[in-house]
């Protein structure tokens, strides 16, 4: 523009491009393991705080990966009665229960036409390794109906290789509709109390409508049953990130 | 109507014989049923001996898995499994294909022959 004494103007380098890294912005919606969230009740939060400290101590020593109900896991446990002193079990996670240090998860697999389920404690010192072979979610939080489903839906190959997954990818939801064995089932899964979306009900129409007799549509509007965990979760996430940095 | 299989094994529970003995595998119009549990309580868990009524005969058997959930880290099976046994503890079959829990290994002295014919452990 304004020539300074006839010489060419001083070189102005172009403005640096601003890179907005959208991947790091997604860090906010990080996974928080469900056993950290304290249950609704009148117990002193100090108890849960102390338990969380112990859980974090254990997690510093031993890596507990992120997994959901419906993912395929392989767990190696220390077992004095086994040759090699350790046993490995592969299966689908059908349920995650318990809060705090007593948190458990149940793995199911069908070996030699026999369905086997093992309930493991996440924070047990006997567990030597937890590997996630396939990380995925299902349509329901509880896959107990797999006991009454055809065995092909519960069979997991024992020598399965871990499915490679890139970080910061969306967790895939497996929308499979499971076919069931003929009735009777262990629980009446068609009833609205279980609210199951992952079964392909091949029952006649009148049976499905008869099951709706047990629906309780007022439950979803019951304000006394509400438990909003968003603020509690934020506090716990902050606590976790502070402790894990130490 | 048939009730759902009960959880732990007691008198009159229908069981599934898992070894390859002829007595356990030949079809009969009545399923093998437990008629006595050799236990202080009448409830049989893994490793307990029971008396079975199969094909009109009485035979002793060893429980190797039941539907009732046990202590954590132990397997829970989808059927009540049983291995036919003689009075002295010798198994009648020659091979067990279904998985057997490791907890039986604790009593290696009594069940060594049954554990020897088992193929996979859980």
UniProtKB/TrEMBL annotation, chain A:
Q: Provide this UniProt record's keywords sorted from A to Z.
A: Mitochondrion, Ribonucleoprotein, Ribosomal protein, Transit peptide
Residue ranges with Basic and acidic residues bias: 19-28
A cellular component annotation (GO) from this entry: mitochondrial large ribosomal subunit
Please give the Pfam families that the UniProt record associates with this protein.
Answer: Ribosomal_L19
Q: Which GO molecular function, any one, fits this protein according to its record? A: structural constituent of ribosome
One GO-annotated biological process of the protein? translation
Q: Where is this region: Disordered?
A: 1-28
Which ranges does the record mark as transmembrane? none
Q: Where in the cell is it found?
A: Mitochondrion
Alphabetical list of InterPro entries matching this protein:
Ribosomal_bL19, Ribosomal_bL19_sf, Translation_prot_SH3-like_sf
Which family is it part of? Belongs to the bacterial ribosomal protein bL19 family.
Q: What name goes with this protein?
A: Large ribosomal subunit protein bL19m
Give the species. Motacilla alba
Instruction: Give the source lineage, highest ranks first.
Output: Eukaryota, Metazoa, Chordata, Craniata, Vertebrata
TrEMBL record, chain B:
Q: Where in the cell is it found?
A: Mitochondrion
- What molecular function terms (GO) are annotated for this protein? structural constituent of ribosome
Xref: InterPro entries: Ribosomal_uL14, Ribosomal_uL14_sf
Question: GO cellular component terms?
Answer: mitochondrial inner membrane; ribonucleoprotein complex; ribosome
Q: Name one Pfam family in it.
A: Ribosomal_L14
Give GO terms for biological process: translation
Q: Which family does it belong to?
A: Belongs to the universal ribosomal protein uL14 family.
What is the organism of origin for this protein?
A: Motacilla alba (White wagtail)
Q: Which gene encodes it?
A: Mrpl14
- The identity of this protein, by name, is Large ribosomal subunit protein uL14m
